[in-house]
Amino acid sequence: MHRGGPPQRRGRSGADRLHLRARHRHTDQRLDRGAGGPPGVRRPAAAHQLHQVHARPHHGRGQRVRRDRLLQGAGARLPAAHGEPRRDRPRTGPRRGLRPRPRTGRAAPDRAEPRLRLRRQQRHHHPREVHVTTAAPVKPLTVVSAGVVSGAGYGLAPLARLLDGNTVPDRAGAPGEERGSDAAAGLDTAGPDTAGPDTAGLDTADYPPRPVRPVPGFRLADHLGRKGIKYLDRLTGLSLVACKQALEAAGPGLGGPELSRTGVVLATNTGSIAGYTDLLYETLTLDKPYLIHPGKFSNSVMNCSAGQMAIRHGLRGLNATVAGGRSASLYAFRHARMTMAVGSADRLLVGGSEELSAPVAWAWHHAGTLREQAAVGEGCAVFVVAANPSAEDRESALAELLACEVGYHNRAGSAGRAPGHGGLTNGLAAAITRALDRSGVRPEDVDTVSLGATHHTGLERIEERAVRLALGREPERVRVTEVLGETYSAGGAMQLAALLARWQGAPGGTPRIGLVTSVGHDGNAGALVVRGPN
């Protein structure tokens, strides 16, 4: 029996005695164990040993405040340790009613009290407080190639011509076709035995009185052949065509170990809305639910497009689908950067995809967030991004992706703060500033900004104000939404494609710096810094 130890119950193992279990990993750290003591048993500490843990509530998650790490005078404000007489404890702190003496020295950063104070400041942040943070620099990601399917056509060249105003987007489809019909909207009306099914959704002929920007004459069989496309929806078809273009532009096909280190990160909001409504309609109208074809169930999951891209091209790396509203594409770029930073992939196909259908058009029409004459579009943009590109990839690179900062910000502001603090304007401005700092780019070096909130009620002014607040001026603007329509979750990818299309026709010289911004009614906001080729 140990001297001064608590009584032990019979018939219980040492593991069940939680109050006697050792709190140290190694035996040489148990300062209060006497010689010859049984393992796992902790003797009561003497009054002069100050390594016990107090049980009072404290700030911090899972952090134990040890007495031997407290600042001078902080130990007197804690309750007495177990077995320590209260009257014998020295009182080092100031007495009640007396003013404490000012501290002359700076506490070490590994002490407990400064850490707790930092936790308190982070939780109760005041807008007037100045917090200095150091932004870690980022490693550029090389954009090797791009595949774009949009209302302008296929590739970056048609998009560049449309941005320059050389061509006018076809709002009503081919000549002679009535606006609002399936053919006018670019929807595939052929049966499943010819070129693919009609995946436009419920009541495809009844579009709202609003302009639409479909992909002109899109037929999946013309790009991928007839094999394996019978039950693919329109969203998956757009993604597969853009993926094929990007891989072909990147050079010779991948093989062997490269396939296991190549993945897909695709942005979409909810997947195929037309596929959901079609499946729901058949579930409610057919005689029995089991008469629905099982091939349509794969289109009801959000990651169907990303999975089909990997299956068709044999990509065995990371496969992720990112949903984040209008900022989903920037979230995808951010996810790709984090994946490559930890060494989980060497190459990634990153982008966003969105389809046009009657349910989507009616949803935008009734939501009231778009202006009356704002168009609704569709498309997909996929970019082959490499962390460690080869010499050939560097020579033919389209651009370099620098820092990408995204986050959620309360639009109305937090309670108790001044109006505007914590809102979307300051949140987007802070994201732009932090992205520039991490990229090593000065605000005056940005010469082009690709805006995404065009024709959105309220958001367009918020985005412009945030850009002026962060950059101090108004650089050249690129508004891809004016020519392609609202593409929602694929908007960020289309903005990057518009930036690259504009730079392709520009004369060579010093590298250009571009900025892609995104803001949504849901509170998401973000910014991506892009550096053009030499």
UniProtKB/TrEMBL annotation:
GO terms for molecular function: 3-oxoacyl-[acyl-carrier-protein] synthase activity. Pfam families: ketoacyl-synt (PF00109), Ketoacyl-synt_C (PF02801). Residues 51-67, 92-104, 117-128 have a biased composition (Basic residues). Residues 426-500 form the Beta-ketoacyl synthase C-terminal domain. The keyword Acyltransferase applies. Residues 228-367 form the Beta-ketoacyl synthase-like N-terminal domain. One of its GO terms (biological process) is fatty acid biosynthetic process. It comes from the Bacteria. Signal peptide: none annotated. Keywords: Acyltransferase, Transferase. Residues 1-134, 165-214 are annotated as: Disordered. Belongs to the thiolase-like superfamily. Beta-ketoacyl-ACP synthases family. This is Uncharacterized protein. It comes from Streptomyces montanus.
